[in-house]
Amino acid sequence: MTVLTARELDAPYPYVVSENAVRDVVELLRATWESAAATSTLMIALDRASRRSILELEGLGREVWEGVDAKRYIDELRDEWEHR
């Protein structure tokens, strides 16, 4: 293979052997793909392990509303809207 310099090609940039460039790009893509696949697999596993049901929240905060009349509370909120 004959390699010419950038000056011989009258190019404004350094000459790159295309086979080397292609090889380097393929290696970068392969490494990126493998890294992304590993990260993706880990994220899916973590998501499955940490997934919880919203039903676990049932009954939390019940004591906050003890003794509060729901109708009266809503009426008070609606009265605030009229003053805004």
Could you please describe the fold and organization of this structure?
The relative contact order is 0.05. The model has no long low-confidence stretch (mean pLDDT 78). This protein is an all-alpha fold and 84 residues long. It has helices spanning 6-9, 18-50, 70-82. It has a domain at 17-52. 60% of the residues lie in helices and 0% in strands.
- Overall geometric form: elongated
Summarize the helix and strand pattern as letters: HHH
- Tally of strands: 0
Spatial separation of the terminal alpha carbons: 81 Å
The helical percent reads 55-70%
Structural class: mainly alpha
Calculate the mean pLDDT score and round it: 78
Radius of gyration: 33 Å
Unreliable residue stretches: none
Give the biggest sheet: none
Number of helices: 3
Proportion of residues in β-strands: under 5%
List strands and helices in order, with pairings:
Elements: H1 6-9, H2 18-50, H3 70-82
Features of the shown structure:
single chain, mainly alpha, 3 helices, 60% helix, 0% strand
Please give a quick description of this structure.
The chain has 84 residues and is mainly α. It has three helices and no strands. Helices cover 60% and strands 0% of the residues.
